[in-house]
Amino acid sequence: MLVLIIFALLLTGCSDNKAAPVNRQAQAAPVYISKAVLKSVPIEIETVGNVEAYSTVLVKAQIGGELTIVDFTEGADVHKGDRLFVIDPRPYESQVAQAEATIAKDKAQFQAAQANLARDMAQEEFARSQAQ
CA 86, CA 68: separation in Å to the nearest integer? Predict the structure, then answer.
C-alpha cells in the first residue's frame, strides 16, 4: 500500500501538465497621479442621534387664564423680559372695572359721610351756642 501511494505521488509530481500562464496585464490596477495641494478642507460628519438642550427652563404663569397668543417658537433662544404668551385679558379687565366701580362708590359714601359729619358738627356747635 505504501508503494502504491509513493507511485501515485511520483506520477502526479512528474507530470508535464503545466498550469495556464496568468495574464499579468489583466490583474494590474489602474493608477492615477496628481499633484498634492495644501488647502483647508471642511470636516463634515453626518450622523443620527438625539439632541439634548444645554439648559431648559420651566415656564409657569403667575395667573391663570386662557392663552390667546404664543409669542415664541419652541427651541428658540429667549431672554429675560421677552414676551412669551398673552393670556386672555377679558376676565381681568372686568375685575378691574368692578374694582374701579367699587372705589367710586366708596369715595361717594366717604364724601357723604364727611358731609354728614360736617352737618352734625355744625348742628352741635349751634346747639352749644344756643345753650349758653
Answer: 6
